[in-house]
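re: ur question from yesterday

yeah so i grabbed the chain u mentioned. its 445 aa long if i counted rite. heres the sequnce exactly as i have it in my notes:
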Amino acid sequence: MTSRGSCSPRRRDLRTRYPRYAQLSEVELIDATAAAGLPRRNEGFVSYLVLDDEVLAFVATRGAALRVIELGTIPGLEGSIGAYRRLLAGALAADPLPVWRLRDGRYVVSLARPADAVQRVTDPRGVGEALAQRLLRPLEKALAGTTHWVISPDAALATLPFEALPRDGRPLAATRSVTYVQSLSVAALMQARPAAGSAKRDLLAMGAPQFVASGAAAAARIDDASGRLAESLARGALPGAVASGYALSGRRWSPLPGAAREIEAVSALFPSERRVVATGASASEARLRALDASGELAGFRYLLFATHAYLDTEVPARSALVLSQVDLAPGTDGYLTAAKWPAFRLHSDLAVLSACETGLGRAVQGEGVMGLPYALFIAGNRATLLTLWRIDDAGTVAFVSAFFDRLRNGMDPPTALALTKRSFIADRSRRHLAAVWAPFVLYGR
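ran it thru and got these C-alpha cells back, copy pasting raw so excuse formatting
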C-alpha cells in the first residue's frame, strides 16, 4: 500500500478531501532489520516488486537477513497471468475467450488468433509451469524449511492465485499454506493486533440484498437518480469523490439466489443466539451502521458478506460491497466503499467477501484486492477472504461451508483455508476442481 514515485494531483486531491483515503494509501515503511523479525516459526515472507516486466523478490525467514532475489525480466507477465486465471476458471470465467501461446513463449487472451501464435491453449498446466519456473523456483532455497508463505504481490501479481502454481507435480496449496498481505509494513501492523478472543457472537451473515424495489414507480426513481448523477458527472460536479456514486453510475445489480443459499448454509453451523443474519432489504448499510452504533458490530468474530462487489483498480479506496438499494436511509447509498469502512468499529478475526455478480456464479475480480482488506483492517478486522473469479453457486456453498466448519472447530483462518483447499484437491469426484478452490485468497496472517 505504499506509493512508489510521485503522487498524482488526483491522489493528492483525494487525500486532502478525504482523510480516510489518506489513511488507506499511506503506510509507514519498515526497514530490513524489522522485516527480518516478522516471520514466525516455519513462516516465509515474499514481497514482489514489478517494474514493467522486471521482477524482484524480497524474502524474509525467521532469523535470517532480508534477501533480495532478482527474477529478471518476464516478458508479457500480465498477459500470462490473465491467461492462467482464465484457463483455471474454464467455462466459469466471466468472458472465456481463447488463450494462445506465442512464439516467444508469452501467453495472451484474444478472440482472434494472433499472427505469431503457435497454438491455442486449453490446459492451464503449461502456463502455470512457466509462471512457477520464473516466480517460485528461484525462491526455493531461501524458503527452505518453511510451510506457510506470506506473499505481498505487486501489480498484476495481485490477480495470481500462487497456491495453484505447480510445485513437485502438485499445486503449491497441497504442501504449503499461502496467505497475502499488501506489504511487509502491513504485515507488521497485523502482527501487533490481538485476536478477537472471547467474542460475544460468532457470525454476522449479511447478503442477498434487495436491489430493485417493486413497481414501475420504483424503477422510475432509480432511472431519475441515475440521470441526475450522470448530469453531475457531465458537469464535473463530483471531482475526486471516493464515494461509490460516480464510479457505479448506471449500474444495475441482479438478484442473488445463490448468495441466500450460502448464507443459510453457513449460518446453520452456528447456534441461533450466536449469529445475526440479514438478507433482502435488511441487508442494508443502515442496518450495518445501526449495529455499529450499538456496539454490537464489534462483538462478532466472523463477518460474511455475500453480495455484489465493485473493485476499483485505479483508486482502491473506491472499491465497494453492494448492499440493499431500496428504501435508502438518509446519508446512505448502499455502497460500503473502502473509504467508509474505517469509520466502523470491528474486532473480528475474519471477513469473508463472497461477492456475487450473476446467477451464474460469484464475483471474481482480483483487481483492486488491496483496498477493501486494508480498509477492513483499519476498522479492526484481522483477515479478509476474497475470490479472484467466478465460481458456481454449488461450489461456493460447499467450499465456504467447509471453511466455516473448520473455523467453528477452532482452526485459525490460514489453517482452515489450507485444509479446505487440500480436501478439494484430493476429491477427484468434483468437477472444475481448481476453478472452485483456487480463486479463494486470504489477506492476513
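noticed a couple things. Residues 73 and 368 are 24 Å apart (CA to CA). also Residues 31-85+127-192 form a domain with the Alpha-Beta Plaits fold (CATH 3.30.70).
anyway ttyl
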